[in-house]
Write a structure and sequence with these properties.
Length: about 350
């Protein structure tokens, strides 16, 4: 008889697979590691976005000072004549952002603009819809073109607004400006910043596609300090999502901000559909036929949690807490208020 084959293999040579329990344990461990890793990755990404945002503001600061060197004064918010001109059909309404283009990274775009006419003139077709990267924060969730009711592209938004002051931005009847770093027809120079250029905000972050109320002729020299005080003044025309969407337009609700309310304050505007809870108020637009001064609560806001970045007139960029003392914040927005400002 031949040799019999063993019925069973030796135990030491038997091959095991993963049990279901072991597999589930491994999957659970991987899930825990991913859950621990994702917040760290998101924080790193947000830190990179904050850094890029600050660099954009520094570029704007350099452009402002290069403009100053070339023209001996900082640029105006926009230009308006004694007859109220400065509207969409003439060349006066072009924003600070448009004026500083050749001193930043926008010389080609600047050379394509005819500043003798408005941005809606045929010769300036496609200017308003051009995306300019250093005017946009990487954290902006509405980095997109603005379209009209038919879907045609008409504008591109911005995230950095000039400092229009505390409340009164402009008075149409007298052509007098407010207390901020910039206003219509302004030609401010370093000597005009008696509070110190290191103590005066030049630009701050704003959210794109904000709702705003305009042209109700409400408000007085008394500055509201809370959102409900601004909301109580709203009448006239509500715009659901078109604030800070026109980088070419120098009016404060498009390319500026005011320090009426602390950074990131939520203001309700009926019909808001853009940056939710980010409403603004303009009693009477600059160079328009409404009769009151341009009282404006156009709030600095950002998607960076708890802060907004601000460019000081000396070129430094600071992160301002949304909990900053309101008096300190307003003092930082006046160019010659005579306030004593401590650490902020």
């Amino acid at each position: 008889m031949g040799q019999r084959t063993p019925k069973y293999r030796a135990l030491g040579k038997h091959k095991h697979g993963f049990t279901l329990i072991e597999l589930l344990v491994v999957i659970a461990i991987i899930a825990i590691l991913i859950a621990l890793l994702l917040p760290a990755v998101q924080q790193a990404r947000e830190a990179a976005r904050r850094s890029q945002c600050k660099n954009n503001m520094k570029q704007i600061g350099l452009a402002l000072h290069n403009y100053l060197s070339a023209y001996t004064a900082f640029p105006p918010a926009f230009c308006v004549g004694p007859d109220g001109s400065g509207g969409y059909t003439d060349g006066g309404q072009w924003s600070i952002h448009a004026r500083i283009l050749p001193f930043a990274d926008g010389a080609n775009l600047y050379n394509n603009i005819d500043f003798t006419v408005g941005y809606e003139a045929p010769v300036n077709a496609n200017i308003a819809t051009t995306r300019t990267p250093f005017f946009l924060c990487p954290s902006e969730v509405n980095d997109k073109i603005r379209t009209d009711s038919s879907g045609a592209a008409i504008h591109y938004p911005i995230n950095y607004g000039y400092n229009g002051g505390t409340w009164r931005v402009f008075t149409n009847s007298s052509l007098s400006g407010g207390d901020g770093a910039f206003y219509p027809n302004s030609k401010t120079k370093p000597r005009d910043f008696t509070d110190g250029m290191s103590n005066t905000i030049g630009f701050a972050e704003v959210k794109a596609f904000t709702a705003y109320n305009r042209d109700g002729n409400a408000g007085s020299s008394s500055i509201p300090s809370i959102a409900s005080g601004v909301e109580a003044l709203m009448s006239g025309d509500n715009k659901g999502n078109s604030g800070h969407t026109e980088w070419v337009d120098g009016r404060v609700h498009q390319t500026g901000f005011t320090s009426t309310l602390p950074p990131n304050t939520n203001v309700a505007v009926t019909g808001a559909s853009g940056a939710i809870n980010a409403g603004d108020f303009t009693a009477c637009r600059e160079a328009k036929s409404c009769t009151s001064p341009t009282y404006a609560a156009v709030t600095a806001r950002s998607y960076h949690i708890g802060i907004v970045h601000a460019l000081l007139m000396d070129g430094a960029v600071r992160s301002l807490s949304e909990n900053i003392d309101l008096n300190t914040y307003r003092a930082l927005s006046t160019r010659s208020g005579g306030e004593v400002i401590g650490e902020f």
